[in-house]
Amino acid sequence: MENKPIVTCAGDQSLFTSLYTSLAQQLPKEPMEWRRSYGRAPKMIHLEANFVQFKEELLPKDGNRALLTFPFLHIYWTDCCDTEMYKVSVKDGMLRWQSTLRLHGSVDWLIVVVESEAKKKNKTNILPRTSIVDKIRNDFCNKQSDRCVVLSDPLKESSRSQDSWNSFLTKLRTLLLMSFTKNLGRFEDDMRTLREKRTEPGWSFCDYFMVQEELAFVFEMLQQFEDALVQYDELDALFTQYVLNFGAGDGANWLGSFCATVKRWSGLLLRRPIDMEKRELIQRGEASLLDLRSYLFSRQCTLLIFLQRPWEVTQRALELLHNCVQELRLLEVSVVQGALDCWVFLSCLEVLHRIEGCCDRAQLEANCSHTVGLWTYATEKLKSLGYLCGLVAEKGPTSEDLNRTVDLLAGLGEERPETVNSLQSPYKKLNEALSSVEAFEKHYLELSHAAMEMYRAIGRMRSSRLIGKSLAEFYMKKGDPERAEGFLDDSLRSYVAEGWSLQVTHTRKQMAECQKLLQQTEDYLQTSALLAGDANLTEEERKHFYQVILTFASQAPTVALSMAAFAQLRQMQFSPPGAVVHVGAALQLELRVRCLMPVAVQVEQLAATLHFSLEQGGARGRAGGTQRRTGQGPQGQGDGVVLFPQGSPLAGAGMGASLPPALELYEMQDRSPSDSSLNSTGVVCKNMHLLLRRHDSSASLDTPTAGALPAAVAVDDGAQMLRARDITLQPGDNSILFTAPTGEPGSYTLRQLCGSVGRVQFVQSHIYPVVQYEVYSQEPQLTIEPLSDNLLAGIPQKVKFTIATGHYSVKKGDALQLSNTDSMPILHSSCCSATILSSTGELVGERALSVQSSEKVTSISLPPTPPYHTLEFQLEVLCHIPPTPFKPDIERLTNGEVRHRPKNHSQADSGMIHIDQKVSIDCPWSIYSTLISLTFYVPFKAKHSILSAGKRKYIQVCLQNVSDTNFHLADPVLTELTDRAHTSSLTRSLTHLFGSSFPQTVCSQQSVFCLWEMRWVKHLPLCLQCAFSASFAPVSASDAHTAFKPYRYEFQLDRVSTLYSLKAEILPSSGDQHCRTGALCGLEVSITRQAEPSETEGEEEESTEIEGLRTTKLMYEVVDNSSNWAVCGKSSGVVSMPVAASATHRVQMEVMPLFAGHLPFPDIKVFKYLPHSAVPAIQPDTDSCLENDTMSLLDKGLDDQGDTASIRSRGSIHSVGSGEQQRGLPMPRLEPFSPGQVFYWSQGRQVLVLPVTDDHVMEVNVT
Amino acid sequence: MAVCIAVIAKENYPLYIRSVPVQNELKFHYTVHTSLDVVEEKISAVGKAMADQRELYLGLLYPTEDYKVYGYVTNSKVKFVIVADSSNTSLRDNEIRSMFRKLHNSFTDVMCNPFYNPGDTIQSKAFDSMVSAMMVQAS
C-alpha cells in the first residue's frame, strides 16, 4: 500500500472519472520546485495524488492532526457551459461545497471547468463560453481568480488541449505545493510546541512520537526519504538523550513504561515497511524499550534502503544493538538471562537477511567489512547462548539448562508470518540451534567460519584469529583437541611474532592443555618448559609446569627440547682472556646462564659440543693467533668476555626477530707487515648484513618463529665437548665453569649447548655470537739480541739469548753449542744465570747456567725448562776490530746476511764501519745449526795524512769517535812496520810531538789528532808501512786498566820524500816599490830539485837521457781560482828538469793584480809530464786533466783591462806540444805528484798591492 | 576516562599497556591487539600520498558491547589505543582527542630521554602518572 497525498473531487463525478487516468499519469511527469520554510534547501519534487471523492467526513475535525489522511486540495469539477444550467444546479452545488470547506477552514480548493467543442457544437445558441467561467470567478473567487481553471477538450489530441492540460497541471501542482507548505508548516509548528512541552509532567514521548512520525510519513509519502529519516533520527536522538538523562538521575515519568521487564525478545523485524503491531504498542504506550527501538530501527532501515544505503543499515544496526544492551543496563531493566543474546542474535541475522535481500552477491562480498561486525556479534551471542544453555558442555544440557532454553524460546513468541515459509529465518535458526547440541554446533561453526572467512578476506587477520581461538576453546570444551590445535597454533604464532606476552602465555596454557590431551609428549614438554619460565604466570602455575617436566624426566624415552625455554645464555668468559693458549695449557670457560625455571634445577650434565678445525691460527703460532684475536674479539672485548644479546624480557623469545640487533663494532688496525707500524685504523660493523636488511613489518605476522616449537632440536654428538656434571641451577643467574680441552692445535668453536635433566635434554643448537678459542703449537726458537742499541766492536758487549721453548721441553743436560770464531770470543763469567718465564710472561724461576769452552765450541748447558716457557740469559762477547782499514760493509763471513738495517739513519750517515759476525749454534731440539748474525760497529774512524816542511816530514793521525759512547784514549803509538827485509837497515825515528796529555777523553763524535815528526838517517824509503795503535776504554767502565782495549790502525805511505820545492816571487814592475792594481807584475817561479832520485824512484819517474844528462819533464801551471790575478802571457808550460839535486829551473811570467790589498799568491801547480808513450791505462786521467786545464783557462775569464793581445789564449797542451818534438801521438799525459813530493815554499804568501792613485772614480751606491 | 591505554610500536608489539580493572587485563590485551587490524586498515585507506598531512587521530576503531576503542597513529607509525567504557556516555570525541594529544606529548618526552632506547617498553614514571590521570580511577 502506498500513500499519496489526498485530493478530493467534488462536482461532476463522471467527468472526473473520464479524466482521472490521464490526470494521474500526467501529474507526476514533471518535477516542481518546492521552496520550503526555515531556510531548508528547495527541492525538486514529483507530485502524485490520490484522488478521492469529496466527502465531508474527509475533512479533518479540529484537533485531529493526522496528516496522512489530510486532504491537501479540493477540486470541483464541472463541464457546464450553459448559463441556465449553471444557475439552476451547478452554482448551488459549488456553494454547498464552498461552505463545507469554509466550515473546516480549508482554503485549498480549485474549480475546474472542462470545455469541449462537442458540447459547444450541440448548443450553438449559447452564450460565449467565457461567461460561465467569468461567472464562476465572479461568484467564488473574488480575489483569487486563479482558483478557477479551464480545461479545454481534455480528451482530444490537439495542441490546444495539450496547452490547457499543461497550464492546468502547473496550477494543480502549484496549489498542491502551496497547500503542503502551509499545512506542513502549521503541523511542524504544532509539533515543535508539543516538543517544547516535554518537561511538563504529563508529556508522553509516545504521543510525541506519533506526531513526529506523522510528519515522517508525509515526507515518505512525498518520497522525501531523507527528510523522513531526519524525523526518525530526531526521535532516536531525543529518546537516547532521555535514557542518558535517566541514567544521570533525571528520570521522566513516561520512561517508566520502558523500564518494564522485557518479556519479548523477538528481534528486529525489517520485512515490513511499517510494523503496525509495534506501532500500536507505542501508540498505546505499552511498548518496551526493545519494541520502541526495534520499531524505530525498522523504519530507519526501510528509509535507508529506499535511499540505497544498505551499508549504513549494518553500521547503524551494530550501534543500535550495542546501544540497546547498554540502555537496558542503564535503565536497570530486568531481563531474563540470555534474552538479550537472543534478541541481538535474531536482530543481527535479520539485518543481514534484509541486506542480502536487497543486494546481490558481488556487492555483499565487496562489502564484507560492513557486515562482518554483525556476523561476529551474532557468533558471539550464539556462543554465549550455547554456554548458557549447556550446549557446549561435553555432557550435554542439564535439566536446568533445558528450563532456561524453554524460557528463552518462549520469549521469542510466534514466528512472524513473513518468514514462516522461509527455511533460513533467524527465528528458525535460533530455535534449531537451541534445540540440540548437534544443531548448535552446526550453526555455531557455520557462523564462526563465515565470520573468519570474511575477516580473512578483508585482511583482518588478528580478528580472524581471535575467532579461531574462541573456536579452539569451543573444541576443547567439546573434547576435540585435534581441531583446537590448529587454531591455537595459528594464534600463538601470531602473538609470539608480534610480541604480546600476555596473550602468548594465555594461549600457550591452552596449547599445553591441548597437547596434553593429544599426548604430544615432546611438544607438551616444550610448552610446559616455556610456561615454567614464563614470568606472567604465578609461582604455583610455573611450579606445576616445572613438575610436569620433572615427571617426564624420570620416565620413558629421551626428549630434546629447546634451551631457550629453560635458560638464557648471558655471557661467556675465557680465562686466560685471550682465549689463545698453547697445546695442553689450562683454559677455563665461565658460562653465565640465566635459569628461567621457578625452582632450583638439578642438571646432570651441561655440555657444549666443540667444532674443531685446523685453522691457520693454530699452526701459525702465538703471534698470529693473538693478532687475529684482537681483530675479531666478540663484542670488541679484549678481556675474553662474550655477551649474548638479550631480547626484551617482556617481548619474550620471539622478539629477537622484530627488534633490531645491537651494533657489533670492532676495532680494526692494519699494520704493515715489515715493521708493524700502524697503516690505518678504523671501526668495523660485523653484523651489518643484519642491520641493513629491510624489515618487513607486515611479514612478521607470518614468519614462523619459536612460537610453538622450534624445528626439531637434534642433539649432535661431537667428539670434543665441554662438560660440567651435576650442577644445580638456581633461578636467575648461574655461573658454570668449564675446562676446555686443549689437546690439539687448532681452532675450537662452541656449537651446541645441551643440558640434561633426567631424560629431558635442553638443547641450544647454535651459540651466537660465535664463541671460539684457539690452541696453538709452537716450534722452539732461539734469538740473540744485543742489550744496547748497537754492539760495539773492540770492547766486551752483552747479548741476550732468548729461548722460546715451544712444544720442546728442555731436559737436564741439554746445551747450546756455539762454534767459536777467533774474531769473536765469548767471555764467560762465572756467575751466569738464566730466568725462566711462563707463556704469560710470569717469572717462574732463576737458574744457574754453566758455560764451558773448549777450543772450538762453547757449550752452554741449559736448565730444564717446561714447554711453552721462555728462557733468557745474557752473555758477554767481544768482537775484535780488524787492524787494517777496510771498506765499510765488509763481511767477514761470506755466506751471511745483513742482520738488520741500522735503525738510526744518522748513525748510518756517520759512516760507522760495521762488522757482521755470524754465530753458529747447535740447539738440542734441532739437528741443524742455527746461524745468527750479530752486527758490531767499530767505534773509531782513523785517518792519516803526511805533512811536509821543506825536507822535514810529519805524520798526522786523526782518530774520530763515531760511536755514541765516550771513551778514554791512551797510549797512542806510531810504529813502523819492518816487515820488508831490505829496508830494515833504515833508521828512522818517529817522534810524537804532543804526547803529554794522554789518556784523554774522547767524547762521541769528537776527534783526536796526533802528530809525529819523521826522521831518517839515510834515504827515505819509497814506501813506508806504519801502524797506529792506541788503547781505549769506555768512560763508564769501572776498572780503567783492565778495560783498556787496543785499537790499531795500519797504513802505508808512498813517495814520502820531497822531490821538488817550488818558490814563487812577485816583483813589482820596474821602478815601483809595490805592485799596483792593473799594473803588470813579474811572477818568478823557481823549481828546485831537492833530492837525487832513489833507484826505486827512478823506475817510476819518467826520465830521458839527453846529452848524458837525465832530465824529467814537469809541467807547471799558474791558476788563480779567486780571480785576484790575471795571468798574462802563458800560464803554463813544460820544463825539463835535470835529475840532480839542487837543479833549479826558473820561469818568468807576468801577472796583473786585479784588486788592491794583501793578495795571496796565485796557485802554482806542478805535474809530471809524461809523453804519450806511457801506459795507455792512465789515459783517461790525462784526458780529464786536459779538460780541467782548458776549463780552468776558460773559467778564468779574461779581463777587459788586460792587454788582450799579449795574452796567449788557450795555452793548451796542443800548443805546448807543438813546441816540442812531434812524435806522432798527439796526447801526452799529466800525472800529479803524491802529497809530500812537492813542497811549496810560497804557499800562503801574500803580496801588498796598492790601488791606482788617481783616474779612478769610486762609485758609491747608497741604498 | 579510559579503562585501557596502550602504546604499540611500529612493529605492532606493545610498548606500554595499562588497564584499570586488573582482572580484565587479558581481555584488554586481546581487544587492543585486535584493534590493530582496524588501525592498519585505516592507515592504508588513507593512501600514501596523503600520509603526510593525514590526521593522526583515527577516531572510533570499533565499538563492542562494552567498550569503545579509539585509535591514533603518530607519523612514525606508533599507535596509541584508548579503550573507554561504553556506558561512559559523557565522553565526547573532543575529550578523546585531547587525551590522545596528551598521550602523544608525553610519549614524545619519553622518546627525547637520551636513556630511553627506542623500541624498549616504556617504564617512565612521568608517562605512567600521566596515563594514570587519564584512566578511570579504580574504586
UniProtKB/TrEMBL annotation, chain A:
Q: Name one Pfam family in it.
A: TRAPPC10
- Identify the residues that the record assigns to the TRAPPC10/Trs130 C-terminal domain, covering every copy: 1024-1250
Q: Could you name the Gene Ontology cellular component terms for this entry? A: cytosol; TRAPPII protein complex
Q: Which residues form the TRAPPC10/Trs130 N-terminal domain?
A: 2-313
The main location class comes to: Golgi
The answer on whether this UniProt entry bears the keyword Ribonucleoprotein reads no
Q: What is this protein called?
A: Trafficking protein particle complex subunit 10
Q: Provide the species name.
A: Oncorhynchus kisutch (Coho salmon)
Q: Which gene encodes it?
A: TRAPPC10
From TrEMBL, chain B:
Where does the record place it? Cytoplasm, Perinuclear region
- The main location is cytoplasm
User: Gene3D superfamilies from the entry?
Assistant: 3.30.450.70
**Pfam entry (one):** Sedlin_N
From what superkingdom does this record's organism come? Eukaryota
Residue ranges crossing the lipid bilayer per the database entry: none
What the entry lists under CDD domains is as follows:
TRAPPC2L
Residues of the signal peptide: none
Output a single Gene Ontology CC term carried by this record: perinuclear region of cytoplasm
The alphabetized UniProt keywords are: ER-Golgi transport, Transport
**Single biological process term from Gene Ontology:** endoplasmic reticulum to Golgi vesicle-mediated transport
Assigned protein family? Belongs to the TRAPP small subunits family. Sedlin subfamily.
Protein name according to UniProt = Trafficking protein particle complex subunit 2-like protein
Organism in which the protein naturally occurs: Oncorhynchus kisutch
Question: What's the name of its gene?
Answer: TRAPPC2L
